[in-house]
Input
Amino acid sequence: MLDLIPSLGPWMPRVAGRRFAVATIVAASGSVPRPVGTSMLVTEAGEVLGSLSGGCVEGAVVALAQEAMDDGATRLETFGFSAADAFAAGLTCGGQLDIHIQPVPAAKPGEAGHPLRAALLRLAEASPDQPVALVRELGDAGGGAVVLSDPAIFRLAASPELGALLHGEPALQVESIVRGGGTGLVRLSQPRDCPPDRTGAGQPSGERAILVESRLAPPRMLVFGANDFGAALVPAAKLLGYHVTLVDARPAFAGQPRFAAADLIVTDWPHRYLAAEAAAGRTDTRTMAAVLTHDPKFDIPLLETALALDLAYVGAMGSRRSHLQRVAELLSAGVPPERIAQLHSPIGLDLGAVTPAEVAVSITAEIIAARSRAASCLPLRETSGTIHQHPTRSHPAPAPAPADVDKQEIAWT
Output
């Protein structure tokens, strides 16, 4: 649902006082285009906001949403691939989705009415990058919804609405997901005493569950080096949703208009700035650092500082020869070998990148692979298994040990 926030503001007036339905992916397996928590809104006039599968099942979901609005009953529908029925709505990619459909009844003028309608009105007021969480109850008595404005410091005890609903292990799970900025379904062991709802495929929707969607403030990308490569990486990192800071000690370089896409431009010695940010608590295990200065007087003290912190990613530009020199200097400075092994250097994946724009793609590709713990980065046609895995993003595993020097050096030394 949270991915619809940028569009909710202009969309909600269309359903002011009117019926609509919310269709949400609550379970996904195999190769599926969108993860759990993805939602699509359907009005009684058949208007649609959002998408669940890129087109495979949307038509069938709209029809089920219309039925749900007519009878007021929730639905739980499973969509997968069926070779036996070529005309059935399903996923051609071979995965399987469970989609929960919640009807929202009409509301009286001036009233929010249904809790989910009230929650959507609150989400419509949020900015695209604002930290926020939505906690919803699914099942026979589904529809309860609570919006949390500061998920990073959320405590269940501070929310009477959720405290009355959750106890024991489910409460701890919900709190953990909210505070971690994640998405997940928490099943409740005791269903309420309510008559069963009808479902699109005869599946029981009586099991109570809590769907949690949470997002924290955007993670930081620290780009060190006001050069051609930094100018290409800044907008590429913005596309990935990072809050981007460009750092360079030289005012004449950092002040160039080509870096205007950065959220913040800092003129300071890189290692001094990073140490100050860490001391102020403005770096964390989601922070990425790309060292593009390619100058030992900047690189070595900066990498000493960066490798002493628990950052998600530290990469440094340079050839394999310069990397080995860098490793020797870091060892001499007392940096533990296991910390050096976490350094992504030479930075980026081997894509044959040459131009600054291509190098930016190489770097961002490695960042995506690192944060999702991708075991290999081969062309999809040369791999097998699930394509859309939607992994839980966490601190990346340590990088491999430094490569042998006899391998071909990259072009941008």
Q: What stands out?
A: Confidence is low (pLDDT under 50) at residues 83-88, 192-204, 391-413. The CA atoms of residues 376 and 383 lie 9 Å apart. Residues 2-215 form one domain. The longest strand covers residues 20-29.
